[in-house]
Amino acid sequence: MLHAFTGYVDLAQVTLYAFWLFFAALVFYLHRENKREGYPLETERPRSARVAVRGFPEVPPIKVFRSHDGQKFTQPEYGHDRADAPVRPAGEYPGSPFAPVGDPMLTGVGPASYAARADVVERGMTGQPILMPLRKAVAHSVAPDGPNPIGMTVLGRDGERAGTVLDIWIDEAESIIRYLEVELSPAVGAGTRLLPMAMARVRGSRRLIKVASIIAGQFNNVPVTRGVDEVTKLEEDRIVAYYAGGYLYSQPILPRPLFAKPLYRKAAPYRGDNPRASASSVPPDYPASAAEQPAVPTTPGPEARR
After folding, report:
1. Does a cis peptide bond (omega within 30 degrees of 0) precede residue 57?
2. 104: phi then psi, degrees, rounded to nearest 5
């Protein structure tokens, strides 16, 4: 005589256990896949005793991804990590922040950091570069009912003239302006530099573009591109990182707590006839390393109370 197995098996309990096993396996899988970037970690031990920290579960095995143009990409990808970053600990204690060594605007660390992406042009499905100047993208144009950046004057955060917009670079994948191509004024330098549109403030009625991160004399040190009408992914990261680093490093004011008194007076605004300001992006009195930085006062000053 045959009997249904549900008569002596708790089907609801079996289903619950099966769900628990599935959910545990899913969490394990997702946590391991999450380690394809950023792992292995590094300890706070001295560099001579540095040990890779992988945790549990282990870092997943390398997976190969194939793009439509035949290229192969692997994950985890350890080539993006910059082991030669010019930094050193600001103090001899665990968790100490790193301070840049040398010109903080050009070291590529801190707010000016970038990833070592592939030094190749990013291309779309048709094989054409995704980013290109308007002189090459003949199918695109600036909307006539809005301000046209071409020909506008570019000012640094010091209010001095850095150059003139020669052309605009568009992102064909999203049909937006991604960069402005700026021809430098003779007082600043020579050639052209790319300016991220996200870091530019357009004043259409005044035909001006204001950059809030760097002063005019620092435009000459913006990383240049190898190609006239192309920009690689690595060049993009370096250009954007340079402008981003200017928010902290472009002015001769040392990094300090929000409510601390400034360590010394601000320098005079950049002038085109000042060779010292245009020769380097580092302020003359900016310390070369963290060891030369004076102690930060803890009493708020009048400027902080504003």
Report:
1. yes
2. -65, -20
93 dihedral zone (left: phi>0; alpha: psi -120 to 50; beta): beta
Residue 280 pLDDT exceeds 50: no
CATH homologous superfamily for the domain 103-254: Photosynthetic Reaction Center, subunit H, domain 2 (3.90.50.10)
- The structure tokens listed for 64 are 């190969």
- Tell me if 87 sits within 8 A of 100, measured CB to CB: yes
d(Cα 85, Cα 99) in Å, to the nearest integer?
11
Contact 100, 281 (CB under 8 A): no
Query: What is the rounded CA–CA span in Å between residue 268 and residue 282?
Result: 14
DSSP string, 225-247: PSSSS--BHHHHHHHHHHHHHHH
CA Rg, the chain, in Å?
A: 26
Going by C-beta distance under 8 Å and a sequence separation of 6 or more, which residues neighbour residue 243?
A: 195, 196, 199, 211, 213, 214, 222
Token pair for 7: 């008569």
Q: Look up residue 59 and give its amino acid.
A: V
Candidate ranges 141-145, 187-191, 276-280, 297-301; pick with highest mean pLDDT? 187-191
**CA atoms of 87 and 211, how far apart (whole Å):** 27
C-alpha span between 206 and 193 (Å, rounded) = 22
| Mean pLDDT score of the chain | 76
**Two tokens, residue 84:** 């030669």
CA distance 223 to 219: 9
pLDDT at 264: 39
